[in-house]
Write a structure and sequence with these properties.
Elements: E1 6-14, E2 19-21, H1 28-39, E3 47-56, E4 65-74, E5 84-87, E6 92-95, E7 103-106, E8 114-118, E9 123-127, H2 130-146
Antiparallel strand pairs: 1-2, 1-3, 3-4, 4-5, 5-6, 6-7, 7-8, 8-9
The structure holds zinc ion.
The site of zinc ion has 10 residues, from loops.
Length: about 160
């Protein structure tokens, strides 16, 4: 048996193609935490995608790397910042922007059921497609805005962080 050392590497790619390195870590947990705190600030620079990969040390070539999770950057339907990240393996999207946390997720129990929500207003709904979920969230944001509430107001605290 060959024992190899494994390191976990979060990284992100900017719109212009340049790669943002965030270090390499001995645990997947730490790598994910580092990536998450980076995603919170993704509205400051235009990002394209992000990932966490496991690299085996002293292994040559493609076999050395395993991509654990990959995310794509979108504009958030609620706060309109580019902090809405989609986990592309299993459809799961979450806004990492401060005071927002809008989310869309495929139901793990039922086929063709998409859940979406916006924690600051405790809004949650089940819809039939991702498109519908985006529209639902846009509608909720428009409602909040027309009621005079800024969707990125600091008084909007999220339930989880
Ligand atoms: Zn948002």
């Amino acid at each position: 048996m060959v024992l190899t050392d494994r390191v976990y590497v979060p990284s992100a790619v900017e719109k212009d193609g340049s790669v943002v390195g965030m270090g390499c870590f001995s645990s997947q947990e730490t790598a994910l935490n580092v990536l998450r705190s980076f995603l919170k600030k993704s509205h400051q620079v235009e990002m394209e995608r992000a990932s966490v990969a496991a690299w085996d040390v002293d292994v040559v070539g493609e076999d050395a790397v395993t991509v654990l999770s990959e995310y794509e950057c979108r504009t958030c339907p609620v706060c309109h910042r580019t902090t809405f990240w989609i986990d592309i393996e299993r459809f799961k999207a979450h806004c990492y922007g401060s005071s927002c946390s809008a989310w869309i997720e495929e139901s793990s129990a039922e086929v063709d059921v998409i859940n979406c929500g916006w924690p600051p207003t405790r809004f949650a709904e089940q819809v039939g497609s991702v498109e519908e979920a985006m529209q639902t969230l846009r509608r909720i944001a428009a409602k909040a805005e027309s009621a005079g509430t800024s969707v990125t107001e600091p008084s909007f605290q999220t339930d989880f962080e």
